[in-house]
From TrEMBL:
It holds the Pfam family SecDF_P1_head. Coiled coil: none annotated. It comes from the Bacteria. This is SecDF P1 head subdomain domain-containing protein. Residues 1-23 form the signal peptide. The keyword Disulfide bond does not apply. Keywords: Signal.
Length: 129
C-alpha cells in the first residue's frame, strides 16, 4: 500500500477509534520519526512526531486513560508500556529502551516509508487491581 493510502487508512481508523470511546487500539499517524539523543539519559531514543489530527486524538486518548497502563506498539510489537500519569498533549512520543544496534534506524526508515503501524492501547483493568 502506498504512503498516502496508508495515511488515509490510519486517519480513518483514528477517527473511528475516537468515536468508539477509545475501546479499540488507536493508530497514530506519524508525521516524522527520528533517532535523537535523550537529554536526560544521554541514550539514543526514537522520537515520533504525530500529525495534528493524530496528536489531538492521542491527547484525548491519554486524558481518558490517566492511571492506566498503555501499550505502545510498533508493527504489532509492544515497545513500551508506561502508566499514564497525565495527559500527553505535545504531539510527540519519545521511545526509549533496549534496542539492538541499528534497530532504531530501521524503525525510522520503515515508519518514514509508511511500512509500519504505530498504535496505542489501554490495558484492560485487572480484577481486584
Amino acid at each position: 500500500m502506498n504512503s498516502p493510502a496508508r495515511l488515509i487508512a490510519a486517519v480513518a481508523i483514528l477517527l473511528l477509534a475516537c468515536g468508539l470511546a477509545m475501546a479499540e487500539p488507536l493508530t497514530l499517524a506519524i508525521a516524522k520519526a527520528a533517532v535523537v539523543s535523550d537529554q536526560a539519559s544521554g541514550q539514543m531514543v526514537l522520537s515520533l512526531k504525530m500529525t495534528a489530527d493524530s496528536a489531538k486524538a492521542f491527547a484525548d486518548f491519554t486524558r481518558v486513560n490517566i492511571g492506566k497502563v498503555v501499550d505502545l506498539s510498533i508493527d504489532g510489537a509492544v515497545v513500551m508500556s508506561p502508566r499514564l500519569m497525565e495527559p500527553i498533549i505535545g504531539g510527540e512520543i519519545m521511545v526509549g529502551g533496549t534496542f539492538a544496534p541499528g534497530e532504531l534506524e530501521r524503525i525510522v526508515e520503515k515508519i518514514s516509508s509508511g511500512g509500519v503501524s504505530v498504535t496505542v492501547d489501554a490495558r484492560a483493568e485487572q480484577p481486584g487491581g
